[in-house]
Amino acid sequence: MKKIMKKDGLLKTLKTVTAAVMSAALLTTAQPVFAGGTNIRMNVRGSWVPTAVPNVLAYQLSDGSFLQDGFTIDGYYVNKDGFWASAYNILGAWVPARNSWLAADQAGEFETVIPILKNAQKKLTNDLHGWRVISVYSNHITLSSVVTSEKQRKKTTRLAMYKNPSFNGYTIQVCTPLSGDEHEMTEDAGEWTSMALYDYQVLRLLCFCVSRSGDKLARAIYSSWDDTNSENLKVNEWVGVGDTMVRYVPSQGAGLYEIKAIF
User: Fold this and answer.
1) Cα–Cα distance between 151 and 138 in angstroms, integer?
2) Number of domain units in the chain
3) Do both 193 and 117 map to the same domain?
4) What are the residues whose beta carbons fall under 8 Å from the beta carbon of 54, sequence distance 6 or more?
5) What is the mean pLDDT of each run of 10 residues along the chain (263 residues)?
6) Model-level pTM?
């Protein structure tokens, strides 16, 4: 397998919003129903309007209301709170918002995501002192734990995203605890030191690199792996999550989540 690269935040919290966006109403026009009963609002026409947060916009419709949890006519995803950000800061790496799903045959050798992952690796190296390493190959990306002794350097895969040519998507492998929004308190109050939190941020990063609705996808996988299963993912059955179809494939000792474009 040809190896390309091996090296070393969150979307900024929206603390202030415009009054118009705060009063936005969820639209209920009929939409196609996909696997899992998910309603997807696609190709909605409207106009981008600024919010009080730089580089964060809302999408106003002709009736004066605002789009929530849907896709605009130009292909971007507006979240459930009615916001769209031009980029997402995850582990110190800025991930530009996508306006289409990145299929496996479009990813090439992951050229477009390598600079993003290099920046994230810098954060991991600085915070975790070499305990986590991102590696990019021609057909997969891995996050590994690394233990170095005098005799050897041992790498163990914790997360991976493999190209799956059978449906032009990917298989995400989870072999590590994930910690969604938890903070582990240390002597420095509020410092994020939980390894599981960093692993979850790498999962978010991978999801945002291929999906327009990366947080929805990451939360669905996380909740399934954590047994709360908020998005009702199913075994061997495709379920719609944002712009992505997901199905869980049983595997001993790991979670395997197959993902592909929903449209």
Assistant:
1) 29
2) 2
3) yes
4) none
5) 41 32 30 50 93 96 95 96 96 97 97 97 91 96 89 90 98 90 49 77 97 96 93 95 95 94 91
6) 0.82
